[in-house]
Amino acid sequence: MVKISKFLVALGISVASLGFAVAANADTVDARCDVFPKGDDKATFSGLCSFSQRQGYITIDLKNGTTYELSPSGDKPGNYVDKDGKPAYRESGLGKRGQIYRLSKQSLYVYWDTAPFNKNGSKGGAIKPAAGKVSTAKP
Question: Which of 15, 19, 41, 58 has the greatest number of beta carbons closer than 10 A?
Answer without folding.
Answer: 58
